[in-house]
Amino acid sequence: VSGSWDKTVRIWNATSGKEQHVMKGHSDVVSSVAIQGDTIVSQSGFETRYWNAQTGEALDADEVEASTTSATHTLMNVENRTHLKLSGGIGFTTDHAIWNTARQGSVYVVGDVSGMVHILYVQGNEPET
Fold first, then answer.
1. Run of H or E including 66
2. What is the pLDDT of residue 128?
3. Type and span of the H or E element at 48
4. Which residues have C-beta within 8 Å of that of residue 14, sequence separation ≥ 6?
5. Does residue 90 share a domain with residue 47?
6. Model-wide pTM > 0.85
7. What ranges cover the WD repeats (predicted)?
8. Is pLDDT at 15 greater than 70 in this prediction?
9. Does residue 59 share a domain with residue 6?
10. Cα separation values, 120 from 8, 59, 62, 125, Å
11. Residues 43, 61: Cα–Cα separation, whole Å
């Protein structure tokens, strides 16, 4: 899953690299995406949208928020634009400003302004509740 300057969220096939769905609806640049079970959460500016991860269809925000728990939220804090602090005190630093982050399970994806995508596997790092 990716967010873009063109205000879209895209679902990609990880094996083939082909685009599967393009979701439109944001009114600003999509700055963050996360996968929580079968739901994609995307943010732009002060707006949060929810999408079905299988079909790309928009989901009702009230229903999604009621069904998610604090244990499923992505716990990543970007500090000084180049440092990523994960829950449990684990950190990551890039040479360029961090632009996007996403997480699914123990896999963290960090994109920086140089166009580099860093994929981190953090073993034994469970979000705090």
1. helix 61-67
2. 46
3. strand 47-52
4. none
5. no
6. no
7. 1-22
8. yes
9. yes
10. 24, 29, 31, 11
11. 12
